[in-house]
Amino acid sequence: MSAATESRRPALPRDRRSLVVRIVVTIVVGAILLYIPQYFPRFRIEGQFNVIITYAIAALGLNLLTGFNGQISVGHGAFFGVGAYTTAILVADHDWSYPATFVAGAVLTFVLGLLVGLPALRIRGLYLALVTLALATVFPLIITRFSDVTGGTQGKRVPRVRAPEWSGLQDDQWKYYVLLGFAVVAFVLVRNLVRSRVGRSLIAIRDNETAAEVLGVNLSLYKVVTFGVSAMLAGVAGCLSVLNEPFVNAEKYNINLSITLLVAVVVGGAATILGPAFGAFFVVFLPEWLPKSQPELSPVLFGGALILLMIVAPGGFLGLMRQLTGWAKRRLRPPSSDPPTSGTEEALASA
Amino acid sequence: MELFFDRLVVGLEQGAVYASVALALVLIYRTTSVVNFAQGELALFSTFVTWQLFEWGLPVGLAIVVSMALSFVGGAAIERAIIRPVGDASKNPLAIVIVTIGLLLALNALVKWIWGPEGRTFPKIFSANTIEIGGVSISYQALGILAVLAVELVLLYLLFQKTKLGLAVRSVASNNESSSLVGIPVGRMLMFGWGLAAAVGALAGALYASQLAVLDTTIFFQLLVYAFAAATLGGFDSPVGAVVGGLIVGVVTVMAGGYIGWLGEDLKLLAAFLVILVVLLVRPQGLFGKKQVERV
Lengths: 351, 296
Hints:
The structure holds 2 protein chains of 2 kinds. Chain A is an all-alpha fold. Chain A has 16 helices and 2 strands. In chain A, strands 1-2 form a two-stranded antiparallel ribbon. In chain A, α3 packs parallel to α8, α4 (76-94) runs parallel beside α6 and α4 crosses α11. The two termini of chain A are 27 Å apart. Chain B is mainly α. Chain B is built from 11 helices and 4 strands, in the order ααααβββααααβααα. In chain B, the strands form 2 sheets. Chain B has a two-stranded antiparallel sheet. Chain B has a two-stranded antiparallel sheet with strand order 2-3. In chain B, β2 and β3 (136-139) form a beta hairpin. In chain B, α5 crosses α6 (164-174). The N and C termini of chain B lie far apart (54 Å). In chain B, 51% of the residues are buried. Classes of the chains: A mainly alpha, B mainly alpha. At the A-B interface, α6, α10, α12 and α14 of A face α4, α9 and α11 of B.
């Protein structure tokens, strides 16, 4: 009894210390994120950082479905595309304002996600992944087929967004802050969702459907609504991508986009909150960093890097970080003061 | 009516190629429970090797056989060097999916790097003549491709059901651990499965390129999508299902593209997917797939 209380005692200060670390890290990261558009030139902000933010939001949605709920989707590029086309068509042809189209895009992709999620009640795992793959393949074909509305392969130009006078910002900087605001809200909402009863139900379904059902989780409801919410996040990301780059065409939302989003989820760390952000950063910047001497070879290196990363760190970037910090903690702490509870602590952290 | 039969033959001919690639997918899925997104690009690589051998003066049949042998080695090597280090597919399916996607990207770019991005004309394997059967003209190519598929299926059946090697592979597929306990070299069987799939893919790629008469780096992803559709329709764990699924997908796309004017050439794939969706809603395990019974 006394031994247990003794081993408990040092846990409290350590918690407080980690809280301080968390606050400091949040402030530093926040400052860096806010400083980025002041430091980098316009083409990097529009071409890379803003793209990263939209990918991160879409990957966040996909992670909810694939990482937390265990339903693999290779078709989220289609939802992204639906969002993008909703904004593009409404702004360019019907004179809507951008924010209003975000609502329309969100509602539309949510409903679409529910519809795609319905067959997912009967079709599972691998078969579901291939149905979503079909979605990703067919989407550009549909866009091309109805080119009088969508602009088809020619594409559609959308009026640009200008930074308001009072902000004193360049257009690209303004767009960056708007996107960042959306992303922060989305990440906080998803974090709260995942840590709630709903999130625990999602994870329970992923880990053992039968057990979850026995414990009273409404499988159909959760699975379909997760599909809807996940599609909605990808859709909103698509809307935002048009805000950043006011041009859409059929080729932009093909299967490669769906694959990119899935790669972002897994590389960042499936079933982690911040993983999609790291993953989005990775998929945009890794091709940048690869040697440029032979441009044909860079996809080979990118593919190779993916394979290597999955062999070294199957849990993605955040999984690797968690392993490393766990290892470092075990090494740095003297063995005498290392209580046997560290094992359960780690299990809790990874859960 | 004549048009209908013409389209049926064309559909079967195209479906036979989808079926061959689907067969390769099923072979890998059954032995290692990996869904191989790189199957199309593996076939692309093999087909370029076939083309290269043909250019160097080998007769096209021999070129295909040599390329199949090389592909077998390549497939086995990929399993050993890339797939196995990632670990058990059933424990971390996402990681394996990403690895095969990485392989897809890398192989496609590698082909472009080695052979250049321009398209090549691929030799016809079968004669361009047609034969009249009951008023319907059938090309030798259609007959040839269907015959190759039939022979392939029979050989695979004999291999898996009648040989000791096939028995060992099936045993590994059904239970990895028990197999290794009774002394089956599990690792080598997995390599064999991948090698076999790569060889089957090489053959399918040659048929596909010969059917289209061109070979370039963009056409094999589409082939993969059709093959996925075929395997999904037939049931991912059934070779017979893959073949039936492939033929159905081929016929449905050709018929839909021909008869439903609204769909046209662009959207004929949509028709196939709708058929698959309906089938899966009735039979979630595909037409010939085995239903998974879960133990609680």
